[in-house]
C-alpha cells in the first residue's frame, strides 16, 4: 500500500504539535489533522504551563512564545461560608507561566509548519481501520493512509475507540469549566499568581483555580462527571456562582467547558498499539496532587518522545514496534511524575476532602483565634466529630498526601 505521509497526528493541541515538530525535525513527512478551524480552538485549560519540556522542544521559547506571566505566588484558598483561609507561598523563578491556550497553540502550530509539518484544519476523523501495514483514517476530507499515527485527540480518545482498543467510563472524567475575565493588573509585570480554591463547589468532588494573565484572569473549576450527574446542576450556573463568590468583576471574554481525563497513573489506557502512539489527554496524562495541576508539560514531553520514536521506527522499517514508545516514556519525567502523584490522586477521590474538611479547617482556626479552649488536638478532634469524622480516619486521609 502507498501512504500519504510518514506520520499522521490526530489533534493539533500541544501534545500533537510537539510530536509533529519532533518528527519533522527528524525528516519525516508529517500531517496534523485538527478538527477545529485553528489550533487551540477546541482546547480548554486552566492556563498554567511548566516550561521545561517546551524548552527542550523549542530552546528559545522563553523569548518567543506567547507566555503571560511567570507564576511567583502559589495560593491556597479554603472557603466555608463567609469565612475563608488563605495561604500564599511566594518565590522568584521562571519555572511555570500562565498562558492562554489559543495563543500558545497557534504559536506552536506555526513552529510545526516552520519545521515542515503540514496542518490540515477543519479535518474531522470519523473512523479508522488497520490495513496494508498501516492505518487508514476516515475523515470529512477523504481518507488518509499512513504507516503510523500519533493520537492526540483529547480525553475521549475517539481514534482509540474507532480502532476498538478503548472503552469510556464516566468515572474516568472530570468536567473542566473556565472563563477568561478582563482584569486590571495589581501585580508587577514579572509576577503572577496561581490559586487553588477549595469549598466553592459544594456537594461536588472538585476544586477551583485562578491564574493571573497579563490583563485578564483565568478562573474555573474541575469536578467529577458523576458529581454533576448526581446533583443535576448546570456548569454555566456553577461558574457564575464561582465567579461571584471569588468577587471577580470584569467582562467575560471567554467561556469554555470540556471533559478532561481523571484516571491517574494506575488507570491509564494503553499508550500504544501497533502503528499507534497515544499522548496527552487521550493517554490520561493529567497530574493532580492537591498542590498543582499539570498536563501541558506532560503532553509536550510525551509528544516529543513519540516524534523521535517515529523516526526510529522509520529507520527500522517497522512501524508496528510502537512498544518502543512505552519503553522510552517509562524512563522520563512524564511517567515518573505521574507515578509519584498516584497516592495523592487516590486521596483526592475522597468526598470528605470537599464535604467535610473545609468547614473543619475554618472551625479549628475560628477556635484558635477566639477566647476559650485552644488545645489544638482537642479542638480538631471535636470539630471532626461534629462532621462525623473520627481522628483516626482524618489521619488516614492525610497520609494519602504524604
Main attributes?
402 residues; alpha+beta; FAD/NAD(P)-binding domain; D-Amino Acid Oxidase, Chain A, domain 2; 3 domains; seven-stranded mixed sheet; six-stranded mixed sheet; 15 helices; 27% strand
What does this structure look like?
The protein has helices at 14-25, 52-57, 61-64, 101-114, 158-162, 225-231, 235-246, 296-316, 323-330, 333-340, 342-347, 352-355, 357-368, 376-386, 391-399, and strands at residues 7-10, 30-33, 48-50, 67-70, 73-80, 83-90, 96-99, 118-120, 125-131, 134-139, 142-146, 149-151, 173-182, 193-198, 206-212, 216-224, 252-261, 272-273, 276-278, 287-288, 293-294. It has 3 domains: 7-69 and 99-168 and 266-342, FAD/NAD(P)-binding domain (3-Layer(bba) Sandwich); 171-261, D-Amino Acid Oxidase, Chain A, domain 2 (2-Layer Sandwich), CATH 3.30.9.10; 350-399, no CATH class. Strand 15 and strand 16 form a beta hairpin. The protein contains 15 helices and 21 strands. By secondary structure, it is α+β, with helices and mostly antiparallel strands. 45% of the residues are buried. Strands 6-5-14-15-16-13-17 form a 7-stranded mixed beta sheet, sandwiched between helices. Strands 8-2-1-12-19-18 form a 6-stranded mixed beta sheet, covered by helices on one side. The chain starts with 6 loop residues before the first strand and ends with a helix. Helix 1 packs parallel to helix 4. Its cofactor is FAD. GO terms for molecular function: oxidoreductase activity. InterPro entries: FAD/NAD-bd_sf, FixC-like. Keywords: FAD, Flavoprotein, Oxidoreductase.
